[in-house]
Amino acid sequence: MMETPYATPDRAWQQRIRSSFAKQGAMRLLGATMSELEPGHCVIALPFREELAQQHGYFHAGVTSAIADSAGGYAALTLFPPGAEVLTVEFKINLIAPAHGGTLVADASVVRSGRTLTVCTVDISVERGGERIPCGLMQQTLIRIDTK
Amino acid sequence: MMETPYATPDRAWQQRIRSSFAKQGAMRLLGATMSELEPGHCVIALPFREELAQQHGYFHAGVTSAIADSAGGYAALTLFPPGAEVLTVEFKINLIAPAHGGTLVADASVVRSGRTLTVCTVDISVERGGERIPCGLMQQTLIRIDTK
Amino acid sequence: MMETPYATPDRAWQQRIRSSFAKQGAMRLLGATMSELEPGHCVIALPFREELAQQHGYFHAGVTSAIADSAGGYAALTLFPPGAEVLTVEFKINLIAPAHGGTLVADASVVRSGRTLTVCTVDISVERGGERIPCGLMQQTLIRIDTK
Amino acid sequence: MMETPYATPDRAWQQRIRSSFAKQGAMRLLGATMSELEPGHCVIALPFREELAQQHGYFHAGVTSAIADSAGGYAALTLFPPGAEVLTVEFKINLIAPAHGGTLVADASVVRSGRTLTVCTVDISVERGGERIPCGLMQQTLIRIDTK
């Protein structure tokens, strides 16, 4: 785990990030929750329901991408100073097994945190009946936007 | 535009694809519609609403990915024989400008249709007030699954 | 084709870029030449020889990537002011058909030229016996580095 | 580490792979060597020289891609039966720090080995003066070709 260079003793950064997450209409629409948040690391979970599926009943690749992209973005944001925002530049995702039923979990880690660009990897799996089955892998580039 | 090698005179393939699209819970949840469907080509459109946004009010990258991924998948499927299905192997998306307001449009074309793998590119733009503003670009690999 | 916002009447930018290309030891080692250079556009060509092959006698994917990456980088650089340099952030390449014999051609175009980041696409083909056979497709992100 | 399902007691698979590597003209041209080979895992190393550089004297991104692509391909091949070959479908690489001097090392691992497709990740670093500095990250898709 990384140390947040800008972490304050009162962990204000966690509140800042959780409040940003709460503003993501898309995460609410899907029903996703942020289950872990540490410096350089973020996990987002999403229970299955039919509204999240593609035509064969698996989680839609776009839905999988959505929680993985948010997890990576917030992992990056944990290492930014107050006032800095994050935007996704690009990502690539491999869907290595069909994901269905259970809970989809996107587990993101910062690999490289630069002044302008951050690179994350995200492991995506399905938790079902006590098992964790890998179903996707994302490699993502983000940019830091300094507001004001 | 490509010719569907398996196209039937009555265009049964179009009904097959539109019925598959109708089964995608995720597309219904987002509010997406299939606005064009030709051999090797598919367009999906999605009007903006706050539930589709990330924390700054732009279309969430995952939402953008979702319609682009579906558009590419169905573009690929137009060139498959009846009984063949399509799964996304992987994709990479660049978000080249923030997409907000208006209607998000994902315009997918098959670049290479092989026996096993298909490669698509998807141009993503926002239509707003008569303008079309490019906002993303996807390169996608799909696999054909023969369910005899 | 784009207009170089910084183009000088004497086309000094072309000399600047061709002199940078001449400094790429890797391009010399491969035997690549820059065959076209216009604002937002660059083409690099590479005749086949066995030293460029993988184990089946096709152009090695890394060799294909190398000329495509350089073509994209120089396409981006045509739109930068003097003193600015370019570095590859990342790229994704699909190899859509085996490339062997003839001349490998990487044809790069700038899709989005931002203040910090540039996005290019590169079409890769083999020219052989008067034919041009598509064999690859790259989507690339580059960053502008302002020296001094 | 994975177990080669097809491993023979005499490790014929290792000779098969090393002999395939020896046939890669491109690896000889660059000066790369295969330094580790285990089931699901392969490492390729490449000492720096100016002929491998881009215009700023760093390893050219295409050269970095070339050894990473080969490392991933051979990691995949360790898990294939005799007679099966491997081709790169696509890859995506992030260059997270300039790589110069020392020895470039591409360390590839199979993440998912399916009947048709294999997914690998490759960590790329520079070893210089006893240090190992991460400089790149690849996510790669490969296809198995059964030659009768």
Descriptive tags:
homotetramer, 148 residues, alpha+beta, 6-stranded antiparallel beta sheet, 3 helices, 6 strands, 23% helix
Explain the overall architecture.
The structure is a homotetramer of 148-residue chains. With 148 residues, chain A is α+β, with helices and mostly antiparallel strands. In chain A, 23% of the residues lie in helices and 43% in strands. Chain A is built from three helices and six strands. In chain A, strands 1-2-4-5-6-3 form a six-stranded antiparallel sheet. In chain A, a hairpin with a 3-residue loop joins strand 4 and strand 5 (117-128). The longest helix of chain A has 17 residues, at 61-77. Chains in contact: A-B, A-C, A-D, B-C, B-D, C-D. Strand 3 (84-95) of chain C pairs antiparallel with strand 3 (84-95) of chain D.
The assembly state of the depicted protein chains is homotetramer
Mean pLDDT of chain A: 93
Report the count of strand segments of chain A.
6
User: What Rg of chain A is obtained from the alpha carbons, in whole angstroms?
Assistant: 15 Å
Strand order across the largest sheet of chain A = 1-2-4-5-6-3
What's the end-to-end separation of chain A, in Å?
A: 30 Å
Strand count, sense and barrel status of the largest sheet of chain A are: 6 strands, antiparallel
The amount of beta strand of chain A, in percent, is 35-45%
Determine the number of helices of chain A (DSSP H or I, runs of at least 4 residues): 3
Helix content range of chain A: 10-25%
